[in-house]
């Protein structure tokens, strides 16, 4: 459990009031809100938050940002389980303009945080241990970086990282293993990301889920095989591209191409 309280620098462009992580979260109820922007993220366990009469769950990896003076409360989802959180309380002369850029209204709920955002508090904690001029400048930069991370979370702008960490590994795995059974769980183990997160990023990039991409890839491969091996049985073609159910292969092929595999071969 680590927490750092800062001297309030109300004349600064950006400043931090307090920052902490691995915090054993107590129940909080603020009918009049808080006087600075308050970020809270769930690290372990689960919480329930109510902000401006809207209630949502905070699972590990989720977070939310609240504007000053917005009524809110939050507590552990279970009286028998400890809820561990991280938090970052910030303000400054220019923060309202920056938050307008982020797109926050009364609050901003961000599920399934990008690893860079989720690890920011712990990675940056030591930069907030001092309060001299040099440290203050570093802290202002760090706060700005964090606000830009929130902007990226809200706009889905982590594509450059996710291309390398999620999208490319999935497409590579499919191209190498399309002739075998592939599940979302297989892809999740390969990328190291949760199924929901990797599917979200993949859908944002391609407009379809990884398994739909797999189906499309198999069907493209099947057409190539039909042209190269027109004497092969339809069942051979289907099995060669990973379909163990021949009826499903025929159905998917017709759905995608408007004709059956037999009709496609006859047209060649």
From TrEMBL:
SUPFAM superfamilies: Homeodomain-like (SSF46689), Regulatory protein AraC (SSF51215)
Listed transmembrane segments: none
Pfam families noted in UniProt: AraC_binding, HTH_18
This protein's record includes keyword Transferase: no
Highest taxon of source: Bacteria
Residue ranges constituting the HTH araC/xylS-type domain according to the UniProt record: 168-267
GO terms assigned for molecular function: DNA-binding transcription factor activity; sequence-specific DNA binding
The protein's name: Two-component sensor response regulator
Native source species: Lentilactobacillus sunkii DSM 19904
